[in-house]
């Protein structure tokens, strides 16, 4: 019996649950990148980037292409870029709501703060 869809979705989102993997997918959402370019952009050790790319390859989210000694990566499915755009939109809404709540809290705090009298 195969795993339920919700379990597969959870595994999929776990795969996305690392900042370096998200950054790689963001870069690849723009265009194909050589590993050397990604190293410069992301600023991690080559071994660490290699590990994260391997995770993304196993999940079939990225595909490698060799050209001479260089290895280039691209998204396996353009919908990954759309998923990242949707996530950004959701986060923007959440952060805007938090900023509004913070402003409300600060306004309430200043309205209820005890007034200090100046000594005469």
Shape: elongated
On the 0 to 100 scale, the average pLDDT is: 91
Structural class based on helices, strands and sheet pairing: mainly alpha
Low-confidence stretches: none
Task: State the total count of DSSP E strands.
Answer: 3
**Termini gap:** 82 Å
Question: Strands of the biggest beta sheet: in what spatial order?
Answer: 1-3-2
Main sheet attributes: strand count, strand direction, barrel closure: 3 strands, antiparallel
Radius of gyration: 22 Å
Helical content (DSSP H or I, runs of 4+): 55-70%
Helical stretch count? 5
Query: What is the string of helix and strand elements?
Result: HHEHHEEH
Question: How would you characterize this protein structure?
Answer:
The chain has helices spanning 5-15, 19-30, 35-42, 46-58, 79-112; strands spanning 33-34, 62-67, 70-75. With 120 residues, it is mostly helical. It has a 3-stranded antiparallel sheet. A hairpin with a 2-residue loop joins strand 2 and strand 3 (70-75). It starts with a helix and ends in an 8-residue tail after the last helix.
Give a quick set of tags describing it.
120 residues; mainly alpha; 5 helices
Summarize the structure.
The protein is mainly α.
